[in-house]
Amino acid sequence: MASVLDDYFASLKRLKENKPEVLPKESPINNDTVALEAGRNRGSIKKSRPIFDDLIAAINSASSEAQEKKGSNERRVSKLSFEKTQYKELYEESLGRELSLINEIRLLKEEVKRLKGGSLKRVK
Q: Per-block average pLDDT, block size 10, for the chain (124 residues)?
């Protein structure tokens, strides 16, 4: 029975590392997915069997860690999305200032041209 447990623990390790061989990546970590990844039937890990106590504890721990990591990643994505929006707004504001300054330069050049009474010449 030790080799069976080794298979289960190996499959749990692969799921934790997100390198499953049987299931798709990003599969949730639970008793059924560990069993399927180990090549066993769904439901083969039973809480009523004392031999699986350590395995079930390890699965529960890994599942909790995965949920915390997922929550952390979601918070990070949310923060980055918010920052992206802020930088986009700053960029658009700077473009507005740039266009305003270009327009002001054009108006000033026209005024200089009008005041000089003709063409613009470089002042040395």
A: 79 86 85 86 82 87 84 86 94 96 95 79 57
Beta-carbon-side half-sphere exposure of residue 31 (alpha carbons within 13 Å)? 14
How much is the pTM?
0.54
Residues 6+ apart with CB under 8 A from 56: 31, 45, 47
Element spanning 109, H or E: helix 53-116
Say if CB 42 and CB 32 are below 8 A apart. Answer: yes
CA–CA dist 10, 14 (Å, integer): 6
